[in-house]
Structure formats: C-alpha cells, structure tokens
Amino acid sequence: MTLAEQRLEAVRRRTNVEAILFWSLENIRYLCGFSGSDGVLIITGHERVFMSDSRYEEQARGEVRDASFKKYRQKIEGVARFLQSLRLKRVGFESAAMPYESYQKLKGRLPRASFIPLSREIADLRSRKNLEELEKIRRAIHVASKGFLDASPRFRPGVKERVAAEFLECRMRRRGGDKTAFDTIVASGPRAALPHGAASEKRMGQKETVVVDFGVRVQGYHSDETQTLILGKPDAAQRRIYETVRRAQEKAMKTIRPGVSVRRIDAAAREVIARAGYGKFFGHGTGHGVGLAVHEEPLISPRGRGVVEEGMIFTVEPGIYIPGWGGVRLEDMVLVTPHGSEVLTVLSKELKENVYTG
Q1: Verdict on whether the full-model pTM lies above 0.70
Q2: Of 10, 18, 214, 238, which is least packed with CB atoms within 10 Å of its CB?
Q3: 95 and 177 fall within a common domain
Q4: Are the CB atoms for 352 and 169 separated by under 8 Å?
Q5: pLDDT per residue over 18-31, tens digit each?
C-alpha cells in the first residue's frame, strides 16, 4: 500500500465515510493517472472508479491505472446515478475543488446521502514525492533554468518587461516545457515592490532591481524559481537589501530537516529580515509545496501546519518589498532529505552573479 493509499484509508476511518469523491484534476491524475481536463474519481473501501464523458473515453482507457472506467453523458447526473447504485450513506468530497453549484445539484439528487466536506483531511496526499515525481520535477527545473539563461540577454535597460517575459516563456517551451507554470513575473524598479507584479509595458531602467519569477510544467510537474537582477552596479541600499534576503533564505534552508515545524522554517527567514529592520516589508509566507500544482502542501508560513517530512519538495522564497523603492525576492526549490535538504534549483543567488552590466 502506497503512502497516499495509507492516508486515504486513514481519512476514511477518521471521518467514517464510505467513499471519497475527487474533483480536482491534480488529485485525479495523482491517484489514477488521468491527465485530461474533465472527470471525477470515486474511491470506496473496495474499488476505484474514474468517470468522464465520451471525449475522454479513449484517453482514459490508455492512461487510467488501478481504476475502472465508467462513461457518463451529463457529469452530475452520471455521478449521482453511480453513487446511488452503491447505496452510500456518507460520501466525502473535495470541498476546496467542487463548485458550490455542483455540490448543490449532487446533494439534491441524493437526498438520503450525507456529503462530508474534506479539506485539511486530504490536503497532504501529494506532499511527499516519490522518485518518479522527483525526476519529473528535476526535468522541469532543468528546462526552466536553460530557458532563463537563454533569455538573460533580454534583461537590460530599455527592454519592456512584457517583451522579456514573453521571450523567457518562449525559450522554456522551446527547451521542452509543456507550458508555463504561471504567468511569468517581471517587475522592475518601483514595480518590484509588487510580489506578484505581472509583466507590463514598462521598460526596465538602468540600475533598477528586476524581480523575475518563472516556472514551467513538464509531464504534469512544475518548477518555480525567482531571480532578482540588478541592471548596473548596485548601490548601498540594493546591496544591503539583497544580502539580507539571501541570508534569510540561507538560514531557512539550514533549518530544514525531517520533523521540523513549517512555522520554525518560516520564522528562521523572518527573523533575519526583522533584525535588519525590514520586517514589515515581508508580508507573505516563506514557501509552498510544488508538484502537480504550483502551490500545494506544505505551506511554509506563520499559518502553516505540521512538520516537514522526507520527500517533500517546496520553495524557500523570502522577500523584501518597499513601496516606491522596489523589492528583492530569492526563490529556490528544496527537497527534504533524511538528514537535511537538497537545493534542487541550480541558478546562483549570489549577488555578483545577478548584476547585469552588459
């Protein structure tokens, strides 16, 4: 029995549900292999059934593993009819993934069944990666890194943020990426104070900081990395803030090992930034899991829960964002190993390697 299967069985026992209805495509792919864009997976104590319509029948028969396939014409009606045939009284469902309207319709068709919302109970199903998943993530990181190096000459004064972002996305696809993991962030000068500053028509300027957050998907798995560039010789403030963020990231990484609280890892980075006088300018969490989704468990933040475990992969990405001035974020992906962690991303975060003077 795999770790995911063990956790599912524990969820069924703890919540006393007879079946779990999976709606999110990431969990469906993880649990049965289907990579299409619509369907549901129903897992009982005795069987797994993947359901979809005729558009995906052939794809499902070729991809789905450890589950039978049933076809429906209308999603809600088909799922309701199958659940009714099982005579279930308690059905757990992904409350974070199922639209409320779908929930209401399904509940209306099965008035005798109780639908039990599951959120935290199944959030960590994918948190620990196996060797196959790790290799796909390494491949995504390799593709993204090569794409970034290809695009690095585009990060220079006078070039529009949007132009640089689009070229980077093009190179990641040319290097073998299926698609970008998210809309690439290129935020320069004062706009670098926007943690999620989408690339704009602004032209990058001489001596500005430029935050570049990019990632790619390969075989369903994602990468996520952030470089902060300085277009010219850095001034004292740029050097001080950059090095503060780098030390914060370094301290957080040194804290990582199995059994350590996610909040402790976050606090390690936050303490460095606060002691340097920039605490109020670091408003987001220190990291998040990456896998079939760009953002998944574990959550490395003051609100995160639990401890890290061997096999988890997540980002470490402290940042400082000062309105009117700009910002610095450094982001790497790490793997939790038996005795510590391994940095999976390969681009240097040393300041001297990220000063572009050409």
Answers
A1: yes
A2: 10
A3: no
A4: no
A5: 999 999 999 999 99
